[in-house]
Amino acid sequence: MKMTSTVAAPPLRILVAEDDPAVSKLYGAYAQSRGHAVTFARDGAEALVAAATERPDVILLDVAMPRLDGRDALKALKENPGTRSIPVLVITAFGGDQAMRDLLLELGAWDVLEKPVDLQIAFNKAERLVPR
């Protein structure tokens, strides 16, 4: 009989950039239930500061946010040598819009998921984006 052991993956540092407090809380609680540490940003401008200072392993990014939207934040993240290599998973209500998906992928998103998102699928994907 062959025995296989599964080693739990190390916890990730996840930045959740989302302006809806209820959605942020949901993502944060789910991430923490999987053993991850979470930092929150309420808009794109906060996301840029948090990404540069916290150096998260992965960023979950909304598009429609105040001050600096997700498209501009993504562009700035990928132009900054300090944050360029951080994988960004975009979770947006615009995920079903093919032109928006294409733009986000061109700007450097690793993938685009549509809201409302299945948290298990989203976090499985986020965990796979991080090289270990």
Automatic annotation (TrEMBL):
Residue numbers of 4-aspartylphosphate PTMs: D62
Protein name as it appears in the record: Response regulatory domain-containing protein
Domain Response regulatory stretches: 13-130
Signal peptide: none
Domain of life: Bacteria
Family matches, as SUPFAM superfamilies: CheY-like
InterPro entries listed in its UniProt record: Bact_response_regulator, CheY-like_superfamily, Sig_transdc_resp-reg_receiver
Regions annotated as coiled coil: none
Organism of this sequence: Anaeromyxobacter oryzae
Keywords recorded for this protein, A-Z: Phosphoprotein
Pfam families: Response_reg
SMART domains: REC (SM00448)
Entry keyword Transmembrane: no
PROSITE patterns: RESPONSE_REGULATORY
